[in-house]
Amino acid sequence: MKIKGFLYILLLLAISTPAIAQNYTSSNSRAIKLFEKGQTALQQSRGDEAIRFFSQALEQDPSFVECHIMLAEWFLDTHREQEAKEHYRAAVNLNPSFFTMAWLQLGDLELKDGNYDQAISDYKTFLKVDKKYTDRHAAAQHGIDCANFRKEALAHPVPFHPQNMGPAVNTRDDEYLPALTVDGQTLVFTRRFPRKATTTATTSEEEDLYMSTLNNGQWGGAVRMPEPLNSNDNEGAQCISQDGRIMFFTACNRRDGGGRCDLYMCVKKGDTWGKPRNLGPAVNSGAWEAQPTFSIDGKTLYFVSDRKGGYGGMDIWKCVFENGRWSDAVNLGPTINTAGNEMSPFIHYDDRTLYFSSDGHVGMGGLDIFVSRRQDDGSWSTPVNLGYPINTSGDESNLIVDAASTTAYYSSDREGGFGKQDLYSFEMPAETRPIPTVCFKGVVTNAKTGARVAADIKVVNLKTGDVAANTSSDAVNGGYIVSLPSQQDYAFIVSANGYLFYSQNQPWDYHGREGSEWEPVTVDIALQPIEAGGKIALRNVFFETGRYELLPESEYELDKVVELLQNNPTLRIELGGHTDNVGQPAANQTLSEHRAKSVYNHLVSKGIPAERLTYKGYGETQPVASNDNEEGRAENRRTEIKIL
To answer: How is 18-70 classified by DSSP, letter by letter?
Structure first.
């Protein structure tokens, strides 16, 4: 029997030591003698014998408070919680202030049993009568908050109709920790299964990464992902980048590891996965790191660790990839992390909505799933519980939400599955959905030859100047996928060595569509090689109507022009201004010249030699679309670069 530490020690210090005269709550000498025999037996770690003495003492005097408390502690420690509750209740009924911690223990037991009003009453009594264990008052208030929350949650359940993902994905083995590409076509998850007998295996079970693809609305049969992504060791607790070409995963006890479990990264080129590599000491420590999630800005990695410097057991941390290296890990802070455990984070494709599991925030019990949103100043909003019955008195975790912001996926051991733990999907309640996103996918090619091009793709929020998404097209097949939060103005810029960069400003409907109507928008991009006569339109250079002063939103795109000229020092260009046909031709001609000169002056101010630049206004003489509608007129209002 493992004797529970702090309460027994407190009790022994307070009411033992037979050599010193005691003022027991009993005057029955036979009961007192049996009680003191029990104390001695406890001190000698003879737990079963001690409990027998305490029980016999109560037979002599049922009002012996100390015996009730000792038995309550024993039954609590041996998971006989109803008997523990009976003895705690007897003790406080006999003497409410003798051992005030009994009220806190009663509150916890009643909360666990779902007796919320009684739990609240017991917690409040503890706060009222206790003067000794003030360090436990916060725990009592937390219990009150949990009881009130659970009453309200049970009275107002959220819509929840989970659907098992079926035998193509789930088996009699355990499936958990789902990850999804942004187009919703590829599902990656962890499967645990009995390990085949080997001479080197250190565990009886193996974890590997499996993948299933969506075909005509049905998930295909899951297959084990290839080596070297998987190995004879355990791989799991993974996330996949939005384009499906970078995998972060957890592996434990490897030779190149820095702690018990470390985070690794693996990159896919074409159809081939490269060798996994440890993320290094900035991310991994001598502790436990696992359960990564990667943001769409292409540089922020969130993960779970029990390293020093946290707020509790497991905390959520983040690292940022800048200038070719990972920054030191930063804790997400006390709004997210608690004295308990925070697990299985998932940052949505909107780059603002974070889902995670916690047993430290107010909830239904065990690990509950919460949602928090990153604010404009970088702080996190107060986490919101997803509600009952998504959360229950058991453990809920491993939740992700698709880019359409309507369907959630998670793992559960609920009854009716194919195995102990299966993957399920359900419609996300509207109140806890992420910001709707829109997804673009396509192929980047050489405009002249049609050859596939590996290109850098950046999407910039024009209001803030921040990079909203950062990805690239595949070096083998030229494919790319990128997702963006809706209802924002963006600059969409694609660049590659030897090519003029591609520029576009919000050319598609960023409000998107939700649910079954949601699907990626296909946008193929043809890059112009850098050669004389080549042209590109600068779609993210902005002016007020009828004016030629550059607006601040133009800064990022003009910086790309500077970068182009710096990287190609023999390049000479003409800056051409163009207008639609609204207004007088002479006025449009003058306006286009002034706008071209404004861009010219800006580039010179950034250090580009004037002899490499010319500018010219074309007015309305070179339309690229019809001037009969606003969409066409918007295309005609442009600044162009022409290679001289």
So the answer is: TTS----S---HHHHHHHHHHHHHHHTT-HHHHHHHHHHHHHH-TT-HHHHHH
